[in-house]
Amino acid sequence: LTLEELIMCQVCGCSILPVTQHLQPGTGEGRFQLVDVVQDLLAANNRTASHNREHFDKRGVLAINLMSSPGAGKTALLEATILALRDRYRIAVIEGDLETDNDAQRIRAHGVPALQITTGTACHLDASLVHNALHEMPLAGIDLLFIENVGNLVCPAGFDLGQHRNVTLLSVTEGDDKPAKYPVIFRASDLVILSKTDLLTVLDDFSPERAETALRNLGVETPMIRTASRRGVAIDAWLAWLESELTHLRERRGARAPNTAIVSEA
Amino acid sequence: MDGLVPSICGNYVASCTRSGAYTLVGQAIEVDVHELSVCQALLTQVGDISRQHDNAVIERITIEMGPLSGVDSQLLRNAYQVMRVGSTASHADLVVNEIEVRIECLICARAGAASSNRLVCGACGSFRTRIIAGNELRLMRVEMRAASLSASPSHFN
Q1: Is B144 in Cβ contact with A29 (below 8 Å)?
Q2: Structure confidence at residue A231 as a pLDDT band (50, 70, 90)
Q3: d(CA A248, CA A189)
Q4: Nearest CA in chain B to A37
Q5: Shortest Cα distance, chain A CAs vs residue B150, angstroms
Q6: Could you read off the pLDDT of A20-39 as tens digits, one per residue?
Q7: DSSP readout, A90-151?
Q8: Which of B22, B139, B141 sits opposite A15 (nearest CB)?
Q9: Using one digit for the tens of pLDDT, what is the confidence trace for B118-137?
Q10: Are B12 and B4 in contact (CB under 8 A)?
């Protein structure tokens, strides 16, 4: 390469890019080809997610992708949910964290199977990570599968895991403008949970009404409910929503034509 | 190119030397962002397209994306500069067409521009709106040149 063949990279200023010559169609060696494609960049992830969803549908398992910023109370909500529902439903949990299996241990302490995915530096779960986890987690007999995503309001938003519903927690120890700051994840949610609402009495700068307005400004009708997992009983609206979703899933499943193709075991 | 250490997910360290004269070394991204996953998916897709065209050398990639995709275009460009090294797109330009958010009101049928966190109808104020543009994250076009024997494509991807 001579200096004349080099241009400056517009991003980092490095000089390793050869000059992009004006492209001419032709034949043979050096022939120019142009391929127009309109393909979702996350198509591969979406395919794996659909495959996961077929597994869940086949078993009648309601799969919930639980998302929030770190420390909003996802694991505490799951613990309270297990205590409330474990006599009626069989529950399993997939935990996503950068490091440690602390959350999976908390879930297992309640006698519920929990599989920990440690992502290392990756900031979100994707469909293939969940798919690998499913190979280690028997779904037979399970009613509810919770996938607790990595605590992060940005990265998990774009990655379908195969869940039936996205649920995002917004704790009242955060700002009530979170939906405005993180529109993508809140738009993707099927339910928003205001968590730790027992703290509202001492956190007078958080307004549930402002939080709801910020959510509505995203052009969605997503329900917003309140929980206080640490006080044991204040998760009734959440439990009712879960049971309603499970009923809907099983009605849809029952209504499916008997010859509907079901994928074979992965 | 030599001396490259690309890995799937996690830290990316690209070092590249050409004839010892020009060196780009030591760009490391310590903390993962999801733009790395998206960039990896992009490179896989264009690598597949290159293979379908007799390993043609990729010269330009065009994508389009909107703010509601949740992907930051500058972070994606940065990731691309590092991750393309050693791939079939190692010399390809990345063109990013950024799409603005547009909504249509389901109540009054007005359509117009909107910001990512204010997606209510600008005319009647309803939140019953539909996104008509702004959540794209798509590969649109790949421009390639048939491979020559003297410049065979990289084997890293």
Answers
A1: no
A2: low
A3: 18
A4: B140
A5: 11
A6: 333 344 556 677 889 998 99
A7: -EEEEEEESS-SHHHHHHHTTT--EEEEE-TT--S--HHHHHHHHTTS--TT--EEEEE--S
A8: B22
A9: 999 999 999 999 999 999 99
A10: no
**In chain A, what residues touch B45 (CB-CB under 8 Å)?**
37, 39, 41, 43-44
Alpha carbon B83 to chain centroid, angstroms: 11
Taking residues A74-93, what's their average pLDDT?
96
B80: CB partners within 8 A, 6+ apart: B39, B42, B94
Distances from the Cα of A35 to the Cαs of A38, A59, B40, B50, in angstroms?
Answer: 10, 41, 20, 10
Residues of A in contact with B11 (CB under 8 A): 121
Q: Which sign does the torsion angle of CA A67, A72, A75, A78 carry?
A: negative
Which residues in chain A (124-143) have CB-CB distances under 8 A to chain B? 124, 126
Q: What contacts A128, CB < 8 A, 6 or more positions away?
A: A45, A48
Tell which of B12, B116, B117 to mutate to test the A interface (max A CBs under 10 Å): B117
Quickly state the pLDDT bin for A19 (edges 50, 70, 90).
very low
Q: Rounded CA gap, A253 and B46, in Å?
A: 38
> Which among A58, A114, A35 has a CA at the least distance from the CA of A81?
A114
Give the one of B21, B53, B103 whose C-beta lies nearest to A219's C-beta: B103
b/e per residue B48-82 (b: at least 16 CB within 10 A): ebbeebebbbbbbbbbbbbbbbbbbbebbbbbbbb
Q: What is the pTM of this model?
A: 0.81
> Given an 8 Å threshold on Cβ–Cβ distance, is A39 in contact with B45?
yes
